Structure formats: structure tokens, C-alpha cells
Amino acid sequence: xYAVADLRVLLRVRxxxxxxxxxxxxxxxxxxxxxxxxxxxxxxxxxxxSAAAIASAMAVLLLPYSLVGxxxxxxxxxxxxxxxLLLGNLLRVAxxxxxxxxxxxxAPDGLFYASALTVTAVNRFVLAGLSAALPRVVGAGQLVTxxxxxxxxxxxxxxxxxxxxxxxxxxGPDSDAAVVLVAAALYLSAALASLRMAADLLGPEQVRAAxxxxxxxxxxxxxxxxxxxRHLAARPPAARALTAMTALRxxxxxxxxxxxxxxxxxxxxxxxxxxxxxxxVAVVSGAGFFAAAVVTPWAVARRGTFGWIAACAAAAAxxxxxxxxxxxxxxxxxxxxxxxxxxQGAKIATDTVVQTSVEDSYRGRVFALYDVLxxxxxxxxxxxxxLVLPPDGRSAVLVVGVAVLYAAxxxxxxxxxxxxxxxxxxxxx
Length: 429
Known about the structure:
The chain is an all-alpha fold. The protein has 2 domains: 1-211, Up-down Bundle (Growth Hormone, Chain: A), CATH 1.20.1250.20; 228-429, Growth Hormone, Chain: A. Helices cover 83% and strands 0% of the residues. The protein contains 15 helices and no strands. The protein has helices at 2-11, 14-42, 51-76, 81-105, 109-133, 143-169, 176-194, 206-209, 214-233, 236-266, 270-303, 305-324, 329-357, 360-388, 396-422. Helix 2 runs antiparallel to helix 5 (109-133), helix 3 packs antiparallel against helix 14 and helix 9 packs across helix 14 (360-388). The chain is globular and about 55 Å long.
């Protein structure tokens, strides 16, 4: 009840509502664009999609977040953040129109990927700007509620954008460019919404922008990341949890590429049917994520963080081959729920370990490294899957290999939990 009351108070804050509107429109457009990219690369009737093409698409979507993200804050402390939201979204409008033209013209894949890569790189600045601006529009006492509401609402907006893109994609066989233009319209709406806020409202303070030359600030950021890595290495619980999460993310990425190939070639009635099946699998996996958010606090209280990571990995190790080796839609959909649940459950527990093990002054840098590991593991998994998967996605070797890796993570985390228990250290935080 207190949370609901806090939320009502928060939504009465005019500038918070305006910043939230920019987030919802921007992340809704992100969801549309991501589905457009998947539809064009994987489900275009003209393309003979390979796992290598999917791996390339994964790299375009995820690597900019990892490579640009740690350095985005340096520039966000120098540029007016309202202008980042305005100009970033306007730039994405132009890039989306260019991408639509490239799709319509049948341009070489290299040009298409370059355009898409730039769109996703700009995303990192916009999302970081939205987070950095939040303390400028709410009071200190409202910040926790605002931090809980904004990212969740943004994720829901991205999901809704993806659903809209799926609907547009199913209208006709040549709708990929139209979906990209829908994303452009939403980015334009986000840019216009940002104009409702004063140019200086979101900061930063001008005195902060002049502290260091840009080159020195970027170098300092790089040194800070190295210091964060050393700090992490000196805290075995956090390092072990992050290592386990990286392995689990690798497994999830490899299986994601498998499902994409199955939807494209083994199931469905042509590309449109496969795209509809993929949308359903994504919804079921999302339901697993939501269920994990509900169950994990209770499970961690009973098993401890490492015990819960181990239980999630063990469940995935057993159920992945049991359901996945059928290569049939029904069991694979069930596996999507299980893997969504176990992946998110382990991630929530890992976040808790990092938050409680790492000193506050290093926490931001460690989470930046966490972001890099999380996304690079997914892209690396796509690359490995590209080498292993046959054209129709049916690979018992990949499924069994992933199950073995899940089992190894489960064994390692059970071992960590027992060592901490024997040493009398808490395992529930």
C-alpha cells in the first residue's frame, strides 16, 4: 500500500511524467526496431538465413551497449541531457529512414548492418541519459520508487513495441521497411516529447563539465574500469557469481539462436508463420521472467543466493535436454518458460551478491563490467551456435553441450554455497 501511495505521488510530478513519456516512446521504438532487425535478417522471404547471419544481428544489437556504455557517462556529464534525448532521438529518426531505404533498395548487408549498428549505439546514450536525468526531476525521497517504476515501464514499452512490430510484420510479405518506419515515427515522438522540458532542466551543472579535458576523462574512465576489475577479483563471492551468470547467459544465447533457426525453417508455414511462433515463444519466455521476479525473493530467503543460482542451473541442466531434444514446438515453448525463469532467477540472485559484496564506490564500475560480460557472452554464444547448428536448427550436440555447461555451473555454485556455510558466512543476502 505504501508503494502504491508513493507511486501516485510520483506521477503527480510534472517533470517526472514528461521524462517518463520520453522513456516510454523511446524504448517502445527500441522494441519495434529490434523486431524489425530480427524479421529482416531471419524471417525475410528473400533471405536464406544462416546462424552466422543471426550471430551478426546479435552483435549489432548488443555489442554497442557493452563497448559504448562504460564511456557514455563521461559525455553525459558534458552535454545537456535534454539535448541528448532530443538530438539522439532525431538522429535515430534519420538512421531509421536510411535503414528503411536500404531494405527497400536491397542494399548490401554491410551497409544495412552499419546503419543498424549506429542506431543501437545511440540507444546507449539515450538510456544512460534517461537514468542520469532522473534525480533532476524527483526528490531524494522519491528516487527509489522512481528507479523501480521507470526501467520496468520502459521494459513493458519495449515489449509493447515488439508486439506492434510483430503485428505490422504479419500484414504483408514486404513489410520490413514499414516496421522500421514505425520505429522512426516513435523516435520522432520521443524527440518532440523531450521539448516539453526546459533545455537545462536535466543538467548537468556546467561547473562539472569543465573539470577534465575529454581525452583525460575517457582515459580516467578506462582506468576506473580496470580498478573495478581488480576490486571484483578481490571479492570472490561477487566474482564467482558473475562468472556463473556469464556462463548461464552463454547457454541462454546459444539456445536463443537454436529457437530462431527452428522457427525460421523447421516450424511454421513459411517465414510469416515462423515469425508468429517466435513472437509466442518470446511472450512465454517473458512470462518466465515475471514468474522468477515473484518467486526469487522467497527462494533466496530459503536457499541463499548461491543455492538459488545452483538450483536454477540444475533445473535448466535437467529440463533443457528433456524438452529441447524433441525439437518440437510444444516442448520447446515449455523450455522457453523454464529458461526464462531460471535465467532471470539466477540474474536477480547475482545482482544481489554483487550489490552486497562490492563497495559502494566501486559498484557502478563493477556493474558496467557486468553489462559487458552479460552481452558479450550472448554474442559469443551466437557465434558458437553459428559454427555448430545445421540450417534447420536441430543440433543434439549443442543442446547436450549446453546442458553439460548448466550442470557444471550448478555443481560449482552448490560447492560455493557449502563452503560459505561451513565458514559461517551468510548466504541469504
